[in-house]
Specification:
Blueprint: H1 16-23, H2 25-33, H3 37-48, H4 54-69, H5 71-89, H6 101-129, H7 136-148, H8 151-164, E1 170-175, E2 181-187, H9 195-198, H10 216-229, H11 231-270, E3 279-281, E4 288-293, H12 296-302, E5 309-312, E6 318-323, H13 329-344, E7 353-357, E8 362-366, H14 378-392, E9 398-402, H15 410-426, E10 430-434, H16 438-446, E11 452-459, E12 465-471, H17 480-488
Parallel strand pairs: 3-7, 6-10, 6-11, 8-9, 9-10
Antiparallel strand pairs: 1-2, 4-5, 4-7, 11-12
Helix pairs in contact: 2-3, 2-11, 2-12, 3-11, 4-5, 4-11, 5-6, 5-11, 6-7, 6-8, 6-11
Length: 495
C-alpha cells in the first residue's frame, strides 16, 4: 500500500496558482478533503507532483479498487491514526530535547502509554479486514499491522510501561577507582511485591543511609545516580516512541490520500457524474482516448450532471478546438487537464472510460483580465506568461491554451500562435488549443499533419448549444450573433 515518497509533501510547482485558477483545481481538492485540511494538503501534493511511472499509478489503483469497495476500512484507519497523534499532542513533548534521563523516561512512558489503546484498535482493524481485501499492497499492510501489533506483544509492552512508572527502582552498581560508581544495572521490579519486602531490612542485615531533608548536595548526588541508572532505558524508549510516532504519521499520510479519493469519488457520483480508474500508459506512447469525459469541477460546482464528451486522440499532439461561443470549449479544455492530473495522481477521473499516456506536467495559458495599472497591454502580458511557461516546460508535457494571443489583430496572433504551437509539438508537447482565430485553425487543419485533431463545439440549427465537442473542421464564424440574440432579443437583430 505504501506510496512512499509519492505522498510526502514536495515543493509546490511554480505554476500551481495558474492550475488552480484555470482548471478549478481547488474545487476538486475541497471535495476530496471534505473539510479536512490535512487531506487537502496530501491530495493537492499528489495532483501537483504527478507520478512518473506506470507502476506508481497501478500501485495506487490496486489499493483504490479495495478501498472504493470497502470505504469504511480506510475511514477507520485514518480516524484511528489521527486520534492517536492528537492524543500524543496532549502529552508534554519536551522529552524530544530533554537531557535529564529520568524526565525523558517519564515523558516517553507517557507517550507510549497514551498510544496503546489506538495501537490495539489498529490491530483489531487489521485482523477484521485482512481477509476482505484483494490487493497485495493493502493485504501486506494489514498483515504486517496484525503481526507487529500482536496481542501478546502489546500486553508485554503494557507490563513494561507499568514497571517503568514505578517511583522505586532497584539498581546494582560497583565502586570503582576513587570510590566512583560503576556498572549501573537497573532491575525490573516484580509485578507484585510481598508486603514484607516493603518494610525496611532489620538492623545488621544491610547498610543504609538517609539523606537529610536539607542536604541539597546529597539529593543532587542521588538524583544523578538515578539518572545514570535509567539512562539506557530512557534512550531505548525514546527511540521506540519516535518510531511509533513516525509510523503513525506515515500511515496517516497514506490513508489521507486514499480517503481523499473515496471522498471525491462519492462527491462526483452524488452529482450523477461517472468515474473510472483510467488506463495509464508509458510516456511517449501517445495514447489519449476517453468516453463520457466530464469537467469534475463544473459538476461539483453545479451539484448536478454535466455533458460528457468522447475523445479519440491517439497519436495527436494538437487538439484544435473551435466553434460557437459558449459552446463548452473551455469546459472541455478543463476536463482534459483535470483528467490528466487526476490520472497521474492515481485518482479516479470523471469519465466512463479513459486511456492516457504519462505527461511530464500540465500547464495552462488562459486569458487574464487586462492589467488594471495600464503598465502593459494584454499582448505584453500574454507573451510574458508564455515565455515563463516555456522556460519551465519540459518535453512531453501537456499545455492547455485558451484563446491565447487573441488580444491582438488576428494576423499577428496567428503568426505568434503558429510559431509557439509548432515549437511545442516539435518537443513532443501535447497542445489543446481553444481559439476563435479561423486563419490559425484553418492553416493547421489543412496542413494534413497527422498529429493534428480538429474539433468543434456543436451548435443546433436553432442556435442551441449542446455542449458536445465533436471532430470536424473549423467554421469561419463563432456564431456571436447567437449571444446578441440571447442578450438583446432576436427581434432587434433585424431592426
Amino acid at each position: 500500500m505504501n506510496p512512499g515518497e509519492e505522498t510526502r509533501h514536495l515543493p509546490v510547482p511554480s505554476h500551481a496558482n495558474d492550475l488552480v485558477q484555470d482548471l478549478g483545481l481547488d474545487v476538486v481538492i475541497n471535495a476530496a478533503a471534505s473539510g479536512d485540511r490535512f487531506i487537502a494538503d496530501v491530495v493537492s501534493n499528489a495532483l501537483l507532483n504527478p507520478a512518473t511511472t506506470v507502476e506508481q499509478v497501478q500501485h495506487r489503483h490496486q489499493v483504490l479498487t479495495d478501498v472504493l469497495a470497502q470505504p469504511a476500512l480506510i475511514r477507520d484507519l485514518y480516524r484511528c491514526t489521527v486520534e492517536a497523534l492528537e492524543a500524543e499532542r496532549g502529552v508534554r513533548r519536551s522529552w524530544f530535547t530533554q537531557t535529564h534521563s529520568t524526565a525523558a523516561l517519564r515523558r516517553a512512558v507517557d507517550v507510549v502509554s497514551v498510544l496503546m489503546d489506538h495501537l490495539r484498535e489498529l490491530r483489531r482493524l487489521a485482523e477484521d479486514n485482512r481477509d476482505l481485501v484483494q490487493s497485495a499492497p493493502l493485504q501486506g499492510l494489514l498483515e504486517r499491522q496484525a503481526h507487529d501489533l500482536a496481542e501478546d506483544y502489546l500486553d508485554e509492552v503494557s507490563e513494561y510501561l507499568r514497571a517503568l512508572r514505578s517511583e522505586a527502582i532497584s539498581v546494582d552498581a560497583h565502586l570503582g577507582k576513587w570510590n566512583s560508581v560503576r556498572g549501573y544495572e537497573l532491575h525490573r521490579p516484580p509485578a507484585h511485591r510481598p508486603w514484607k519486602e516493603l518494610a525496611p531490612p532489620p538492623l545488621g542485615h544491610a547498610y543504609t543511609f538517609v539523606i537529610p531533608p536539607r542536604d541539597d548536595a546529597g539529593a543532587d548526588a542521588l538524583s544523578a545516580m538515578r539518572d545514570r541508572s535509567v539512562g539506557q532505558v530512557a534512550e531505548v524508549l525514546d527511540r521506540s516512541a519516535r518510531h511509533i510516532l513516525g509510523w503513525l504519521t506515515e500511515l496517516r499520510t497514506q490513508t489521507a490520500f486514499y480517503l481523499g479519493c473515496v471522498n471525491l469519488d462519492q462527491a462526483l457520483v452524488d452529482t450523477g457524474t461517472p468515474t473510472c480508474l483510467p488506463t495509464v500508459t508509458p510516456a511517449g506512447d501517445g495514447r489519449l482516448t476517453a468516453r463520457g469525459l466530464r469537467d469534475p469541477a463544473l459538476a461539483l460546482r453545479t451539484g448536478g450532471p454535466v455533458v460528457g464528451n468522447d475523445v479519440e486522440g491517439d497519436g495527436k499532439l494538437l487538439l484544435l478546438i473551435t466553434g460557437a461561443n459558449s459552446g463548452g470549449k473551455s469546459t472541455f479544455l478543463r476536463s482534459l487537464g483535470l483528467a490528466q492530473m487526476m490520472a497521474q495522481a492515481g485518482m479516479p477521473v470523471a469519465a466512463e472510460q479513459a486511456t492516457l499516456d504519462l505527461r511530464t506536467g500540465v500547464f495552462t495559458h488562459f486569458r487574464r483580465e487586462e492589467d488594471a495599472s495600464m503598465t502593459s497591454g494584454k499582448l505584453d502580458e500574454e507573451l510574458r506568461r508564455m515565455s515563463g511557461l516555456v522556460d519551465r516546460l519540459p518535453a512531453g508535457g501537456l499545455v492547455l491554451l485558451n484563446e491565447s494571443f487573441a488580444s491582438t489583430y488576428e494576423h499577428e496572433g496567428t503568426a505568434i500562435a503558429t510559431d509557439v504551437v509548432t515549437a511545442l509539438m516539435d518537443r513532443a508537447v501535447r497542445v489543446a488549443y481553444v481559439t476563435h482565430m479561423y486563419a490559425l485553425a484553418h492553416a493547421f487543419t489543412e496542413s494534413e499533419d497527422a498529429r493534428v485533431l480538429p474539433l468543434h463545439a456543436e451548435r443546433s440549427d436553432d442556435g442551441t448549444r449542446t455542449f458536445r465537442i465533436l471532430p470536424g473542421s473549423p467554421a469561419a464564424t463563432s456564431h456571436a450573433v447567437d449571444l446578441w440574440d440571447t442578450v438583446f432579443g432576436a427581434e432587434q437583430t433585424t431592426a
